[in-house]
């Protein structure tokens, strides 16, 4: 059986990642509430300038109706809609105003699991300017992202959006309409506690503007080094060594050395997967070409790391036998440090995958 819950409302509490700003309106009388009045909710995805490139879409799901509280003329209570499962016993907290931001984060996660990962199909509100009074779940995501719902190892739900350079994740948020709170910043106080929300002296606001605070992280793309040896001199293995240097906005973001061993003529590839930030300018240089081989292409090649959903950035080098009949072989030393064992050397000399 689907459970419903009701409780008196005297404040709007949002999860800590939501900043709420309310315009000043004039209700019919101070403290009075009119649940027949339509509400509007404007949600801004965040303050990152690059968000304009992430094709953000925002859905609003009503998860509870606002029901007038006959015992208190200036408050209302909630009644959840069919299909919303909230497994917390809200009655143990007294009134909703006593809940902390962390409590509301938990409630928003429970609502999100019902709406986004549950068996029932919920339809978002078609119009954000004519909403019934109630409690709404706000879900922001990339309109071009097919599987935008992410579930972490801790079971927490987030939603995703992507620009070329950045990955954004949003927490589902709960917003109550109407509200009396003028601003919620989610800032920690000097003792590490969350901001306390009260409704002292507040008037009900039916038009609400909320600004989300997503996380922003660099996206990482792939690089492929294609090495072709046209003629092989078979007296000893042929080793070729490449340095990879990546810069972004004038800062070095990646530096490493790789090698490729050949035992016959042909083509081999070195693949770097998810190691270099998208948009980074990469220079790959063949710093060692073997003792008997010469490059027929440029020694240094340049490319830009592309997003994961675009063709992989690649560079190509071609060598051939120069008839010098010199013999030689290379080993790539890779040193790692362990607190218990100190420095150790992995001298595997081939980085190719095929």
What does this 3D model show about the protein?
With 354 residues, this protein is mainly beta. The chain has 2 domains: 8-217, no CATH class; 219-346, Immunoglobulin-like (Sandwich), CATH 2.60.40. The protein contains 1 helix and 23 strands. The protein has one helix at residues 101-116, and strands at 8-9, 18-21, 40-44, 56-68, 76-80, 134-142, 149-151, 157-162, 166-170, 173-177, 183-184, 207-212, 215-218, 220-229, 238-248, 251-262, 266-277, 281-288, 293-295, 300-304, 313-321, 334-338, 342-346. A 5-stranded antiparallel sheet has the order 1-5-4-6-10, covered by helices on one side. Strands 3-12-2-11 form a 4-stranded mixed sheet, with no helix packed on it. The longest helix has 16 residues, at 101-116.
Quickly count the domains.
2
Q: How many strand segments? A: 23
Task: State the end-to-end CA separation.
Answer: 57 Å
- Helix and strand content put the structural class at mainly beta
Number of helices: 1
Oligomer: single chain
What is the radius of gyration computed over CA atoms, rounded to a whole number of angstroms?
Answer: 29 Å
Percent range for helical residues? Answer: under 10%
Strand content: 35-45%
Write a concise keyword list for the protein shown above.
354 residues, mainly beta, five-stranded antiparallel beta sheet, four-stranded mixed beta sheet, rod-shaped, disordered N terminus
């Amino acid at each position: 059986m689907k459970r419903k819950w009701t409780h008196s409302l005297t404040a709007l509490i949002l999860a800590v990642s939501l900043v709420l700003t309310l315009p000043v309106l004039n209700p019919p009388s101070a403290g009075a509430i009119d649940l027949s009045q339509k509400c509007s909710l404007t949600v801004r995805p965040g303050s990152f300038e690059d968000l304009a490139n992430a094709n953000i879409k925002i859905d609003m799901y009503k998860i509870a109706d606002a029901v007038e509280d006959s015992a208190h003329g200036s408050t209302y209570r909630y009644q959840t809609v069919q299909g919303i499962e909230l497994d917390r016993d809200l009655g143990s907290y007294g009134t909703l105003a006593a809940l902390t931001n962390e409590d509301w984060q938990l409630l928003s996660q429970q609502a999100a699991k019902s709406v986004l990962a549950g068996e029932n199909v919920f339809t978002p509100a078609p119009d954000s300017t004519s909403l019934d009074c109630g409690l709404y779940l706000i879900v922001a995501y990339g309109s071009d992202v097919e599987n935008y719902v992410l579930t972490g190892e801790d079971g927490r739900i987030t939603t995703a959006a992507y620009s070329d350079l950045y990955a954004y994740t949003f927490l589902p948020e709960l917003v109550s309409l109407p509200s009396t709170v003028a601003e919620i910043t989610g800032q920690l106080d000097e003792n590490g506690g969350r901001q306390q929300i009260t409704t002292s002296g507040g008037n009900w606001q039916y038009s609400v503007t909320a600004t989300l605070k997503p996380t922003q992280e660099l996206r990482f793309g792939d690089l492929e080094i294609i090495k072709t040896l046209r003629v092989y001199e078979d007296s000893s293995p042929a080793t070729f060594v490449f340095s990879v240097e990546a810069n972004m906005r004038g800062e070095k973001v990646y530096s490493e050395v790789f090698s490729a061993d050949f035992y016959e003529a042909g083509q081999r590839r070195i693949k770097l997967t998810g190691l270099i930030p998208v948009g980074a300018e990469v220079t790959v240089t063949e710093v060692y070409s073997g003792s008997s081989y010469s490059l027929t292409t440029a020694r240094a090649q340049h490319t830009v790391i592309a997003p994961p959903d675009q063709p992989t950035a690649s560079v190509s080098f071609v060598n051939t036998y120069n008839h010098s009949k010199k013999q030689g072989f290379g080993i790539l030393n890779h040193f790692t440090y362990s607190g218990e064992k100190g420095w150790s050397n992995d001298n595997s000399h081939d980085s190719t995958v095929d």
